[in-house]
Amino acid sequence: MRGAVLAMALMAVGAGCSTQPAIHSEAEDVYAVSGRFTSSVPGLLIAQNAALDEAQAFCREKGLRFSQLQDQVRPGDATYTVRFRCLAATDPRVQRPTVNQAPDQMF
């Protein structure tokens, strides 16, 4: 019984995803990928996750690092598009996390 409920839940989630994200080249070293799901807030989050996972895996397969350039959200049809580059780890364009400094003033 429990397995049947899990299988039906997975089928319902799978039915909402209209396309598998596909990466396409937009310029010499700029790529884009879109994720699409049912039009809802959770669907948009699933679309975003699928697109980002696909982009990161694409760069990882090339032995490079994912560097996001721009993203776009179309909530009406729950589509998330990310434009990105795959960069060498030593490339100065690779985004590094910033460290929060202590505030200058204390309240």
Provide a concise account of the structure shown.
The protein is of the alpha+beta class and 107 residues long. It is built from two helices and four strands. The chain has a domain of 72 residues.
How would you characterize the overall build of this protein?
The chain is α+β, with helices and mostly antiparallel strands. The chain has a domain of 72 residues. It has two helices and four strands; from the N terminus they run H-E-E-H-E-E. It has a four-stranded antiparallel sheet. Strand 1 and strand 2 form a beta hairpin. The N terminus is likely disordered.
Number of helices: 2
Runs in which pLDDT lies below 50 for 5 or more consecutive residues are 1-18
SS content category = alpha+beta
Order of helices and strands: HEEHEE
Characterize the overall form. flat
Q: How is the main sheet built?
A: 4 strands, antiparallel
**SS strand fraction:** 25-35%
Show the helix and strand layout:
Layout lengths: L1 H15 L7 E2 L5 E6 L4 H21 L3 E10 L4 E9 L20
Antiparallel strand pairs: 1-2, 2-4, 3-4
Notable traits:
107 residues; 4-stranded antiparallel sheet; alpha+beta; 4 strands; disordered N terminus; 25% strand
